[in-house]
Specification:
Strand content: 15-25%
Structural class: alpha/beta
Helix content: 25-40%
Shape: globular
Length: 447
């Protein structure tokens, strides 16, 4: 291990960190351009075969960037997309970014350091950085934006230069070091461990924008919100946000074990989709409506009305049902399509019932700051089901690829063991029972 990383682990002062040299190489989980075609024609695109852990060159730091010694990171589904080179190879995105020239050219490498979550310690700041300093404990907002583009100042996610850090850029979080823009840095909640703090930014931030932000569905008290995959990374945070906002959470899950967990997470009503009757001889559209009728009937029998909001990131498999189930005048909010991007639905159920579809992507800096504040105040809690070492990141990503996880899967980078990083013991004590209870419930159902 290099001396700077060791100093971070040992709790060195900012002055000591500043005096340690930045290494010329660092350990990172990465994919390789030469492997981009390795899964062509292969049914099981096993990410353990494409994710490598080893030394990569340390890039130069731009004036508006920060070098973070990463204590912990987490797996997101975009890690799986990166490692399967689908729906497109991320090396095409890196090449496009590299053509901008200047410091952007660094991103176009024959390797890509992946990962869109991180917590850690600032060890260097660029000449133009003002609001953070060496020694700060931070979390990373995954939205990589161009602050010189006018649209960014209206909404960071609207700028054409907006990218997903660690997916559409290089130098991501599954590594001992990460390069991020200063506009991605937020203070780490002091009562959380490194792995807890690294586990929420992408998923909780995305769910916050989808449900709470004025750019999303804007939940209000009493709203019934139907959440697909209510025990997954996105869905589990969505449940917390709905309950915090005075809403009624309806979880859709795939097994009786997940039904029990969804209830423990806070769902008021849970439906096991495995129990729904599906006629495979029907067309996709007709099958979706048939499933929607069953779901709608169950929700009305339990709650007396249809959901005003449907939270969908599953995509092709669920989207037509989401449009059908949403109440008259209701909203379907979507941020992804893990089962396919080509959505097919009966438009009559949308236009004749005055429903809306909101496309939501990522989270802007202001929204992420608001979301992080909720963690800081103990109003949102991390939801980790398992923790892996950086050397085992392929196994961690495989777990997510196979959807064999619940909550979030964390990865320790420089942190030598779980449970480190808490700097406010009093505040930790206030939420310790809640976190331990939630963690125990998640771990039981993850086994």
């Amino acid at each position: 291990m290099d001396s700077l990383a060791q100093a971070v682990i040992d709790g060195a002062t900012p002055e000591q960190l500043a005096n340690e040299p930045v290494p010329t190489q660092y350990r990172a989980a990465h994919i390789r351009r030469e492997d981009s075609e390795m899964f062509r024609g292969v049914d099981d695109k096993d990410v353990r075969k494409s994710i490598h852990v080893g030394d990569v060159p340390m890039p130069d730091l731009a004036p508006d960037e920060v070098l973070v010694a990463v204590m912990a990171s987490a797996i997101n589904f975009n890690t799986v997309w990166s490692a399967t080179f689908e729906p497109v190879s991320t090396f095409r995105m890196l090449a496009r970014l590299g053509r901008e020239g200047g410091f952007s050219a660094r991103h176009d490498q024959d390797h890509q350091v992946i990962g869109s979550d991180a917590s850690g310690v600032v060890v260097r700041v660029g000449a133009g950085v003002r609001r953070c300093k060496i020694g700060d404990h931070v979390v990373v907002n995954p939205a990589f934006v161009d602050d010189q583009e006018p649209a960014t100042h209206q909404d960071g996610m609207m700028g054409t230069g907006q990218l997903a850090w660690g997916y559409e850029t290089n130098f991501g979080g599954l590594a001992n070091y990460a390069v991020v823009r200063a506009s991605q840095i937020l203070p780490k909640p002091e009562q959380l461990t490194w792995e807890e703090a690294a586990s929420f930014s992408l998923c909780a931030g995305t769910a916050y924008r989808m449900l709470v932000s004025d750019k999303g569905a804007r939940i209000k008290q009493g709203d019934i919100v139907m959440i697909w995959g209510a025990t997954g990374g996105l869905g589990a945070f969505a449940v917390q946000l709905v309950k915090n906002g005075g809403g009624i959470a309806v979880g859709i899950v795939g097994s009786e074990e997940k039904v029990a967990l969804a209830k423990e997470l806070g769902c008021d009503f849970v439906i096991n989709r495995a129990n729904l009757k599906v006629d495979d001889s029907l067309s996709h559209a007709d099958r979706s409506v048939a499933v929607g009728k069953q779901i709608g009937k169950l929700i009305r029998a339990e709650l007396g009305e249809d959901p005003r909001i449907v939270f969908d990131y599953v995509g092709r498999e669920t989207f037509a049902t989401s449009v059908f189930v949403a109440a008259r005048g209701g909203t379907v909010v979507t941020c992804g399509s893990t089962t396919g991007y080509q959505h097919e639905f009966d438009n009559r159920y949308l236009w004749m019932n005055l429903k809306r579809i909101i496309g939501s992507h990522g989270v802007n800096y202001g929204e992420m700051a608001e979301c992080t504040r909720l963690f800081q105040r103990g109003m949102l809690l991390p939801m980790i089901s398992s923790t892996y070492a950086l050397d085992s990141v392929g196994e961690a990503a495989r777990l997510v690829q196979r959807n064999d996880h619940v909550g979030k899967v964390a990865v320790l980078c420089l942190a030598p063991e779980p449970g480190l990083g808490v700097t406010d013991a009093q505040k930790r004590a206030q939420i310790s029972t809640q976190i331990e209870s939630l963690r125990a419930a998640i771990e039981v159902h993850a086994e």
